[in-house]
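Input record, target 12 of the design panel.
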């Protein structure tokens, strides 16, 4: 799929490669969309991937004066877990929580979501409603632009081939402002938006609207605003009549797309419904964040942070061995550089426990731990294993004993065909490591990225409960 894979140790090294290679190269941060698109032949011009995932400092959320700043490696889970984002940019946290499953949120970055530029990408909508801007960096210099101006058409941006997205800058909500993100999908998790809405409003002491921004996703070629609805709200209270009329105006602002997920007519009606629902949420006292207090992240002790950078960059070509530590063994494998991590583990390392059920991050059967973080291995490039530590289902137990989650699956008869089982076991082991006594909601959240076609989940959830009890009883 690619001819060369560079793991860089600095931003300047990445920019130098982009400047040299131009459109034949692409930055890899999470890479969850890119690897699937390349496997489908959607980027025939790409020859080189530039991996920045081990450059320290790029995965931070900070506040600089009156601006919240997200680095290019900030993942969706980092956003969900950020107190600053929850307090001052809540719609972004709500949108990040709606993306994929824990294993995907541990890899997929907010920057990558913006660059992919799909109008159904959840985090673009709240960032436009929040008035975010992006900073683009190249070897020639830096430029900043409003996120709304970043998009030139369907899945198209104005970013040049020699640029990388260096930061996302968000004006924080003040004490008079509130924001919300709502999404309509075809299922509760792992769903692409049929329609999504982000609304940000400010109100005075009398409850009258002083400012309003409404963004609509998955209804047009790009994320769009609803200016007539925004202007209508100014000076008004959020009563039943105002909310209903604003929904109608927002619906009238777009001519929705028509695709397999929903008809144009359905989308038009759902824009009306979601905008009205969003405004009612913003008017409610107190506001419900819609986020769990302690969500399972499955991200290990270091919270998926870059804690150890590379001493120097290295380039992987077809004949460059991958050196990795897998299930406690140091390996040097001369083949498989062009594959996904899943296929490298199965075909070249000889560990068939991780399964391919979908090859696009939908089923969780391929879950492994990469540097202590649960990820979908079908969505990771094999060269990322170089210098990394990986645990697969074969390495889950300790010495001659099964892991408590493995034993619980046996005791509770939580296995039928067994194909999905490795992914459930890996998710369960990481959950119990993170939350030794999870409640039912936390168990359900932890396996939202894992699909089973046999057991109906009742036995699986009960096995998680038994494993929790067994783990807490170990002296």
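The sequence produced for target 12 reads:
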């Amino acid at each position: 799929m690619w001819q060369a894979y560079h793991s860089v140790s600095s931003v300047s090294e990445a920019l130098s490669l982009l400047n040299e290679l131009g459109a034949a190269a692409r930055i890899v941060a999470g890479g969850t969309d890119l690897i699937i698109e390349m496997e489908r032949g959607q980027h025939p011009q790409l020859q080189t991937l530039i991996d920045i995932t081990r450059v320290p400092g790029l995965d931070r959320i900070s506040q600089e004066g009156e601006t919240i700043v997200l680095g290019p490696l900030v993942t969706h889970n980092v956003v969900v877990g950020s107190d600053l984002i929850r307090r001052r940019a809540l719609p972004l946290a709500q949108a990040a929580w709606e993306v994929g499953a824990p294993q995907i949120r541990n890899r997929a970055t907010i920057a990558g979501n913006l660059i992919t530029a799909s109008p159904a990408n959840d985090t673009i909508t709240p960032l436009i409603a929040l008035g975010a801007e992006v900073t683009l960096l190249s070897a020639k210099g830096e430029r900043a632009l409003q996120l709304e101006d970043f998009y030139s058409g369907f899945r198209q941006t104005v970013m040049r081939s020699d640029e990388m997205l260096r930061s996302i800058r968000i004006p924080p909500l003040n004490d008079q402002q509130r924001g919300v993100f709502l999404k309509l999908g075809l299922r509760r998790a792992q769903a692409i938006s049929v329609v999504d809405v982000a609304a940000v409003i400010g109100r005075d002491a009398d409850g009258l609207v002083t400012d309003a921004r409404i963004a609509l996703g998955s209804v047009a070629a790009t994320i769009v605003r609803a200016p007539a609805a925004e202007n209508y709200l100014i000076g008004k209270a959020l009563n039943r009549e105002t909310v209903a009329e604003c929904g109608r105006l927002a619906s009238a602002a777009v001519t929705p797309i028509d695709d397999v997920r929903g008809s144009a007519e359905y989308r038009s009606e759902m824009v009306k419904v979601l905008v009205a629902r969003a405004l009612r949420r913003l008017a409610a006292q107190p506001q419900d964040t819609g986020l769990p207090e302690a969500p399972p992240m499955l991200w290990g002790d270091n919270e998926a942070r870059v804690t150890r950078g590379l001493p120097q960059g290295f380039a992987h070509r077809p004949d460059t061995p991958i050196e990795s530590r897998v299930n406690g063994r140091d390996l040097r494998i001369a083949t498989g550089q062009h594959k996904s991590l899943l296929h490298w583990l199965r075909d070249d390392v000889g560990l068939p426990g991780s399964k391919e059920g979908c090859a696009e991050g939908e089923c969780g059967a391929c879950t492994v731990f990469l540097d202590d973080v649960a990820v979908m291995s079908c969505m990771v490039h094999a060269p990322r294993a170089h210098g990394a530590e990986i645990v697969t289902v074969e390495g889950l137990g300790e010495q001659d004993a099964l892991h408590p989650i493995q034993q619980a699956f046996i005791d509770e008869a939580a296995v039928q065909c067994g194909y999905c089982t490795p992914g459930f076991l890996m998710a369960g082991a990481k959950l119990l490591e993170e939350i030794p006594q999870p409640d039912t909601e936390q168990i359900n959240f932890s396996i939202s990225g894992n699909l089973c076609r046999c057991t109906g989940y009742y036995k699986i959830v009960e096995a998680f409960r038994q494993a929790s009890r067994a783990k807490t009883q170990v002296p």
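The first strand starts at residue 4 and ends at 7.
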